[in-house]
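A further point concerns the way the authors explain their paired sequence and structure data. Since the whole study asks how a given chain folds, the encoding of that fold should be made plain. A single example would do more here than another paragraph of explanation. An entry of this sort, consisting of the sequence and the corresponding backbone structure tokens, reads as follows:

_____
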Amino acid sequence: MHPLHLEYVKRHPFNDFAELFQVIDRLDPKKRDAAMLDTFCQFVKMRKDVRTVQPSDLEPWGLWDDYANYRRFKEACLGLPPNLNESFMVLSIVSYTLSIRFGWAELDRDVMITACREYIAKTSELVKDLPMEELRRSTLGMIEQSRNRIANIDNEIKEARELYSYICENLARPLLQSWRRRLNVPDPAGE
């Protein structure tokens, strides 16, 4: 566990949405969206308006575009009922994000390879009986993605660790620092 992650959960700083969004706004947008996708999903629901099905909708994650939408996440947070304590919500958002990123950073390589191989084997059998050609192509694409995942698992884990470290350094650290300054709490690292 990254030391800043541990400190964040031990100190449980009290930050408000203004502090949170000031920090998140400074994050690299691609890294922010990658690191916080799971968190966004807890706040942003799919559009309720009728959509025309796009070819990408049948591809894996094709309908997830709404979820990786920082603007909608921010609007949802700022639209929460006033009786919800902001510092509790910020702590929940940051803790959840750190926890998810930690889980990916500590991915068990062998377990992932085994799971992907099992998925490929089972899905390869099922794809033969799929009634629609479009669905069959999409499913074959997912099988190919699983093969690519096995081939690139070491790089995936390396990138997950880098993203976890980035989010600890660039989300947890500034929020801890802001909290310390406001309450005049000494920084154990002397920063």
